[in-house]
Amino acid sequence: MANSVTKHSKTAAKTPARQEPDIVAEDAAPPAKKRRSPLKTLLLLTLLLGGAAGAAWFFLEDHEQAVAPAPKPGAAKAATAKPVSSKPPVFVTLEPFTVNLQQEEASPQYLQVGLALKMTDAAFVDAIKLHMPEIRNRVLLLLSGKRASEISTSEGKKTLSTELAREILQPLADSMPAKGLDGVLFTSFVIQ
């Protein structure tokens, strides 16, 4: 037996001794979470509420009132006279026009103008395209009868826009109501 004890002690010397785990109390609580200080929590809550209130104000406030100037007394009648269209406008772009203007000086002057027609409904676009040669002819005749001094000012351009609308609607009087054309817009305007 002595041999077996010595053998056993030799093998015990070769293998590392097992360490017994530390005894952990089973009812020991897990490490406590760090708690925020009440001041930080209050500050975070204030920031969140302030951000929410700012976003609500931004989306609910009517920003156009702050930017728009106060209306003039007579402007209320003009605003109610024009009906509000629920459909978006349709724009028809015409090919550019280049015409000789009536001479005021020794050298000839030219006008190159791009036009877009603002239509109240897409149904009127077909009527415009159908009568396009007549429309271009009327526009060319009107533009070539103008002098540079008549159309170089902004007031002259507004008058020209009104005259163009009248000329454009003339061949369409039977197929399209006058309210089909909402305006003639200049996309380019060059006098040379």
Walk me through the topology.
Blueprint: H1 2-14, H2 38-60, H3 63-67, H4 75-81, E1 90-93, E2 97-100, E3 110-119, H5 123-130, H6 132-144, H7 148-151, H8 154-169, E4 181-191
Antiparallel strand pairs: 1-3, 2-3, 3-4
Report helical residue fraction. Answer: 40-55%
Count of helical stretches: 8
Broad shape:
elongated
CATH architecture of the domain at 90-191: 2-Layer Sandwich
Q: At the third CATH level, what is the topology name of the domain at 90-191?
A: Tetrahydropterin Synthase, Chain A
What is the fourth-level CATH superfamily of the domain at 90-191?
A: Band 7 domain
Rg estimate, integer Å: 43 Å
Major sheet attributes: 4 strands, antiparallel
Please give the alpha-carbon distance between the first and last residues. 127 Å
CATH class of the domain at 90-191 reads Alpha Beta
Structural class: alpha+beta
Mean pLDDT: 76
DSSP strand count: 4
Binned strand content? 15-25%
H/E element order: HHHHEEEHHHHE
Report the uncertain regions.
none
Would you write up a description of this structure?
The protein has 192 residues and is of the alpha+beta class. The chain has a domain at 90-191: Band 7 domain (Tetrahydropterin Synthase, Chain A). 46% of the residues lie in helices and 15% in strands. The protein has 8 helices and 4 strands; from the N terminus they run ααααβββααααβ. It has helices spanning 2-14, 38-60, 63-67, 75-81, 123-130, 132-144, 148-151, 154-169, and strands at residues 90-93, 97-100, 110-119, 181-191. Strands 1, 2, 3 and 4 form a 4-stranded antiparallel beta sheet that branches. It is elongated, with a radius of gyration of 43 Å. The termini are far apart. The model has no long low-confidence stretch (mean pLDDT 76).
